[in-house]
Amino acid sequence: MSTSPGTTEKRTSLTGRDEKQDNAAEVERLIRERTAEIREENDVLRRENAELRQIEMIYASAPVGLCLLGTDTRYLHVNQRFAEMDGFSVEEHIGKRVRELVPDLADAAEELARAVVATGKPALDIEVQGETPAQPGEQRYWNESWRPVTDSQGRVLAISIVAEDITERKRAEEAFQRYAKNLGLLHHDLEISNREANLYLDILTHDIGNTENVSNLYADLLIESLDGEAAGYAKKLQRSIRKSIEILGTVSTIRRIHRTKTELKPTDLDAAVRGVMEDYRTSIFLYNGANYQVQADDLLPVVFDNLIGNAVKFGGPDVEIAIRIEEDDGFVQVSIEDTGPGVPDDDKNEIFHCYEMKKRGVGKGLGLYLVKILVERYGGTIWAEDRVPGRPDEGAAFKFTLKPASQTR
Fold first, then answer.
1. Cross-strand partners of 296
2. What are 25-46's pLDDT values in tens digits?
3. Are 111 and 133 in contact (CB under 8 A)?
């Protein structure tokens, strides 16, 4: 089939127009894609810039010194804290070598830099000591960690340093060491003084004890040979001698407690009570017994001897003494009650203190202080109450606790 020349020309014209439209569309697509890429690159750049600013802020405000050091020990970047340690500004550091700013530290810095570059490994917790222009003539101490900054092939490009000024800590440690040394010397001197004091006390206790025993014997003889008022004076003299013997014995017991290590063992509580009661056969006791094993030692009878002895001494020959033993919250509680003059409320705590005046008598007492030491040595507590609550004039009740070792019923 044949076509007219006009038809061919028209078709050619349409084809050229379509190609132009396709080219325009392709260009537009390419522009859109490139625009999108540019926007994405800008977003990435903005994010990177924000992160960089955040890193710089952290770097600048870090509480420790931060430094980026070239492999030739040239300062590439330092933060404010690091600059303060050296005594120069941040700007004065940049481009300078360590030897130019702090020559006293240069040898150590160059040696460390060579080691990090050669091995590619960090050097951690390095203690550095030296002087800086900021504190001339003053030794400063730093704790530093050096880490290599490498490229993709592992080559060391720079060294990152984290530094902490530990001068005050080092001074405190040195002061403590001096204190510990002086304390050791003082402790040694005290041990020598303590041994000497104990030696003198041993001699005094032995000699005075012998003298008092002899004086007591002569007092017995004197009482037998005298009558009337003279015999009364001799008996008072003997009571004073016996009181002195008692005090000396108490002091010796306290010294024994403080000089020996506490070694507690199961102890028969009933045997300790009855053994002391045998020494006061003329007194009136109310005691039914109790089968308890408690943690104590052979000084447990001293507790009962002092408490029962006080009841007899201050209560007189007609005093009644009740001894009660019961369990209380995992402890064994002992109560020694008497019908004597009692203890005023204001004195219920003071009577257990060393050298406090005894309100139930005269003189300065060690007996109740000794009782307190022993009870606490056994892991218990002791206190004083009224035998009849609220009526101290009707007698006292001394109560203490002991830890049970084992018990039978």
1. 265
2. 776 677 677 667 767 766 656 6
3. no
